[in-house]
Amino acid sequence: MKGKAAVKRAVTRVRQFSIVSLRDLLVASGPTLLAVIAVAVLAYIWVDPAPPRKLTMATGQFNSAYQEFGRQYAAILARDDIALTLEPSLGSAENLQRLLDGKADVAFVQSGSTADDAAEQAGLVSLGSLFTEPVWLFLRESAKVNGLTDLKGKRINLGPEGTGVPRLFRQVLDANGVDAKELTIGELENTPATMALLAGQIDGLVFSSAPEAPLIQMLLQTPGIRLFNFTQADAYTRRLPFLTHVVLPRGIVDLGRDIPSQDYHLIAPTATLVAREDLHPALVGLLVKSAGEIHGKAGWFQQQGQFPSPKYTEIPVAREAERYYRDGPPFLQRYMRFWLANLAERLWVVVVALAALLIPLSKVVPPIYVWRVRSRIYRWYGELRKVEQALEATQMEAREAARDGLLVRLDEIEDSVNHISVPLAYAEELYRLRSHINFVRERVRGTIDMHGRAVTK
């Protein structure tokens, strides 16, 4: 108990001799602080909302490169506590539709799947091209196909209409003067189509995929199955501008077994990461950063750092993605974790709002604080004035009887003043008040007049 009492006395002593009154300061600045906090919270929430922690990505068919890359994106985003839900699909056409329907936030889309004006009107943006997707035409050797005109009457699987391959390959056939109706076209998905090719139920199948796809790797090494060589690849790129000419080098699959045994010329659209235009800007940068980690390495058809790229896409590139490709990641994200950097970047908005509010309010708080401290002193001048007025209103013959009551009142005022706690900066005014109390006391006693001159009796 004694210890608590000592602590209490020490705290009281600190308050009595402090330079600033914390209580008065808090009361004077309280409304201002509440207004500042309210504005800061509104600015934080309304001006730039926090990024969502969940995203949905439309990928591709089972065993496709899209599916494998989707898993890699999910693993990278998980480091920053963002859950990426992967939604399998038939391919580009279905992915585009899911984006338009709001069922996916981001998706893999093949170049040539849509026109730039149509994508812009639909509210879609590109986050950059990721990799080339060569057109792989695998044929049974027994089919004896040397040119695309030899495909007439053959059983060729192009895949479901929800993929980008049927539309793409029909354009290739049309460039060769071949009507797609002259072929027996299948619509099997990639895995069952591969089984049908190996079983001899079809003569060939068409993929458009990155070479990392497991089915591509397998078919390139399967005896009796050969890859069609697009020897006129340069001409295709002139006729169909969204295509590029790539070369599959001899021995790239297996140098020891010399697979393939020659260079193959292929035509290739590019895979693009497409998002809805309302995707949070911070997530755009994070996805582009993830794309660089996944697709930036050297590969069969690309050099180190060639992808991701804002080129090779007919869909308008998002402004945040363009900024990332031009300037790199935001300054803070180079040294901080994503969420911490995003919080710091968003706080700049709050700082601006605070500055706009604090500058004018800073001129209001000091006068309020001064008034609160001085009011505790000045109110007693009103009491002193009442004592003087009572003295002046008393007749001369009755003043002797009234003095005792007025002196008692002055003692009460002095006792109350002695308990006033003010900061040291205002101690001079407190002592001035005490001297004025003594002045009034002497007047009541009749030793001085109202001007402070001694009274001669």
Explain this structure to me?
It is a single chain. Helix 3 links the parallel strand 1 and strand 2. Strands 2-1-3-12-4 form a five-stranded mixed sheet, with helices on both faces. The chain has a five-stranded mixed sheet with strand order 7-6-8-5-9, covered by helices on one side. 48% of the residues lie in helices and 13% in strands. It folds into three domains: 50-130 and 275-329, D-Maltodextrin-Binding Protein, domain 2 (3-Layer(aba) Sandwich); 134-268, 3-Layer(aba) Sandwich (D-Maltodextrin-Binding Protein, domain 2); 364-445. The model is unreliable at 13-20 (pLDDT under 50). With 457 residues, the chain is α/β, with parallel strands linked by helices. Keywords: Membrane, Transmembrane, Transmembrane helix. This is TAXI family TRAP transporter solute-binding subunit. It holds the Pfam family NMT1_3.
